[in-house]
Design brief:
Helices cover 14% and strands 32% of the residues. With 142 residues, it is α+β, with helices and mostly antiparallel strands. The protein has a domain of 97 residues: Phosphoribosyl-AMP cyclohydrolase (Ubiquitin-like (UB roll), Roll). The strands form three sheets. The chain has a four-stranded mixed β-sheet. The chain is globular.
């Protein structure tokens, strides 16, 4: 991957020139390739981006663990990349994936299992599509 030279190269050129943030990361949104459902938002560093492109499997960088990880390496709930796109200024990635099992570490299909509702006492969360596909305590033993 190359270093961007100017915005016209980044926005209109065909070279992959990701703009990593100060921590060396780009945001990645993963959606279901068949339904379009948003499954998760994570981060990729240069190595995760390269491994994802080379392998066709989703790789991410965990900010909390400060470590590279392949989706499903512990849970078996994998993501096969069908298509990868970069946004206009190449600081965000969108991957359309074939999701096997759950995308969320809480055991749910998607990380977006609560909706925001407005009420008299202020904004609150409500569960939607929150069924667990697996028990995270039995999968992620510490």
């Amino acid at each position: 991957m190359s270093i961007p030279s100017d915005s016209s190269d980044t926005e209109e050129g065909l070279g992959l020139q990701p703009k990593f943030d100060a921590a060396g990361l780009v945001t990645c949104v993963a959606t279901d390739a068949n339904t379009g459902e948003v499954l998760m938002v994570a981060h990729m560093n240069d190595e995760a981006l390269r491994k994802t492109i080379a392998s066709g499997e989703a790789w991410y960088f965990s900010r909390s663990r400060n470590a590279l990880w392949r989706k499903g390496e512990t849970s078996g709930h994998t993501q096969r990349v069908v298509e990868m796109r970069m946004d206009c200024d190449q600081d965000a990635v969108w991957i359309r994936v074939e999701q096997v099992g759950a995308a969320c570490h809480t055991g749910r299909r998607s990380c977006f299992y609560r909706k925001v509702t407005a009420g008299e006492g202020g904004a609150r969360l409500a569960f939607v599509d929150a069924e667990r596909l697996f028990d995270p305590n039995s999968v992620y033993r510490k």
